[in-house]
Amino acid sequence: MNNLEVYLGTLAIAYMVPGPDLVLVLQVSSSLGRAQAMAVAVGLALARGAHVALAAAGLAAVLATSVLAFDLVRWIGVAYLIWLGLRIARSPSWIPGTEPAAGGAPSWSYRQSFMRGFVTNISNPKALLFCSVLLPQFILLDAGPVGVQFLVLGLILVAMGFIFDAVYGALGLALGRWMRGHPAVQVAQRLLFASVLIGFGIRLALMSRLA
């Protein structure tokens, strides 16, 4: 591997840039607590691992060269982000689906949080292209098997993303505790996060393959 410290710095910057993953972790953590946010983080981690595996298999090249394949994945991501934003905006609770069920228990599950994280990341073709562009730059042909190097770099990418998600989960938890005494802020937070997710969906819709 080449310039590991540069690789770590690049990942840190990428994970600090606001995106739908970060917004989702903050929303779920502030609404449902750290455990649910960690379920989201696990879903995000699995999706990132899948992107690394797809990039290693060369499937990222298909998205880079095929307009149809890229647009198919992109529009799935667009539809999902806008749908998620609208659900959050229209929900009477902090997050859709968390209203008490008939028996009085919350209707939200860890599986739903996990799937929300997984789908949010896996449906973003830019995440796959990011892996396919970034990882090869830090591989040395004379430093051992390329597959092993790709695996190690991918594990670092996934682990570092999970660490950042855990930090954002803690921040969201603190935000949620503060908002419990401020009902008006709860509404503003819900509408803000919904608007941001819809905005990310619109931005993804306007992106080209090389943007």
3D architecture notes:
This protein is mainly alpha-helical and 211 residues long. It has one domain (21-206). The chain is 76% helix and 0% strand. The chain contains nine helices and no strands. Helix 2 runs antiparallel to helix 3 (34-56) and helix 3 (34-56) packs parallel to helix 6 (110-122). It starts with a helix and ends in a 5-residue tail after the last helix.
Averaged pLDDT, please? 82
Total tally of structural domains: 1
Poorly predicted segments: 94-106
Shape label:
globular
**H/E series, N to C?**
HHHHHHHHH
Helix coverage percent of residues? Answer: over 70%
Ends: how far apart?
A: 27 Å
Oligomer: single chain
How would you sum up the major sheet? none
Compute the number of helices: 9
Radius of gyration: 18 Å
DSSP, total strands: 0
Class inferred from helices and paired strands: mainly alpha
Give the amount of beta strand, in percent. Answer: under 5%
Layout of helices and strands, plus pairs?
Layout: H1 4-16, H2 20-32, H3 34-56, H4 59-65, H5 67-90, H6 110-122, H7 125-134, H8 146-179, H9 183-206
Helix pairs in contact: 1-8, 2-3, 2-6, 2-8, 2-9, 3-6, 3-7, 3-8, 4-5, 4-7, 5-9
